[in-house]
Amino acid sequence: MNKLLFSCLLVLLVAGSSPAQQEREIRVGIIGLDTSHAPTFTRLLNDTSSPDHIAGARVVAGFPGGSPDLASSAGRVEKFTAEVRDKWKVEIVKDIATLLTKVDAVLLESVDGRVHLEQARPVLAARKPVFIDKPLAASYRDAREIARLARQSGTPWWSSSSLRYAPGLAELKNAPGGLKGASTYGPAPLEPTNPGFFWYGIHATEMLYTLLGIGCEEVITVHAEGTDVVVGRWKDGRLGVVRGIRDGAHDYGAVAFGGKKVQALPAGASGLYKPLVAEIVKFFQTGAPPVPNAETLEIMAFIEAAERSRQRGGVAVKLADIE
Q1: What is the CA radius of gyration of the chain?
Q2: Whose CA, among 17, 48, 89, 94, lies 20 to 30 Å from 191?
Q3: Average pLDDT over residues 144-163
Q4: Is residue 126 in a domain?
Q5: How high does pLDDT run on average in the chain?
């Protein structure tokens, strides 16, 4: 059957189906119940009595996962599994293979970026649309392999930090006189299993890319005991700076340097889960990621380059050299 004929039949089938069939709730499975995102996202999708409820999808199954060598994973997986199971009536399954037989789409929520590639493999092989929570992976190599497997199977995917949806952040891109550069900041505690900004600095890095988009060519990291400052040079000459904070106030924020005006988010800016989850549901419905995969991969390359610069005493590292 040629593609044109298949497309015509698909249109006729959708047009001839009932409204109830067309609007069928998407059955969602969660992989990784070791993060607060698991019960939070489940509440937004499953609590129909809440004014924050997001229609169109429902969490029906969950696989706990968990990383024994990561305290913030191993110490929380039982608590969040119990909450998702008992409060939101989600079926807990023994493995990812079982979960995939029960769902239409997947939220890969495991807090440990190291396990994302292996957990994503069966999802992509099953061609289930997947949102992979931050970080996409704990290395650029793993991130690139996830993207390759997705292309190979034709499976849509995307990844994002909730800080991309910090109130007012997107508006800073429209700086009067054009955006000449930007600076973001946020917490960046160190976690050896997920090095550098892969662990928590991903949030402030994603904020920077929300403002500047793709096109960074090289980065330099200045390291101190209480902070890391990463300076990226974009191919059009703009500079983007991320300050990862370990000592002192742990606020999020951003400054946009426009041609005619400097604008800033108020201190203490935060991401909102509801806009993120709403975008996830749209993605499950359409298969179109709201953040281009190329941008997500460049963010991973940026973080990898920043960590290599730190390890080498602050030398410039080109993103093109990251493999």
Answers
A1: 20
A2: 94
A3: 97
A4: yes
A5: 92
Distance CA 110, CA 35 (A): 7
* pTM summary value: 0.90
| Domain CATH number, residue 186 | 3.30.360.10
pLDDT tens profile 163-197: 999 999 999 998 889 999 999 999 999 999 999 99
- CB distance 263 to 175 below 8 Å: yes
Task: Specify if 8 maps to a domain.
Answer: no
Q: Is the Cβ–Cβ distance between 177 and 261 less than 8 Å?
A: yes
Domain assignment of residue 101, yes or no:
yes
Quote the distance between the C-alpha of residue 319 and its chain's center: 20
Identify the CATH number of the domain in which residue 154 sits. 3.40.50.720
DSSP H or E run through 217:
strand 216-224
Query: Are 26 and 60 in contact, with CB atoms under 8 Å apart?
Result: no
- Check whether residue 260 and residue 280 sit in a common domain: no
Q: Which residue has the tokens 């039949």?
A: 9
Strands 130-132 and 105-108: parallel
Helix (H) or strand (E) holding 6: helix 3-16
**Which domain does 214 fall in, by range?**
163-271+301-321
196 with 307, same domain? yes
Number of domains in the chain: 2
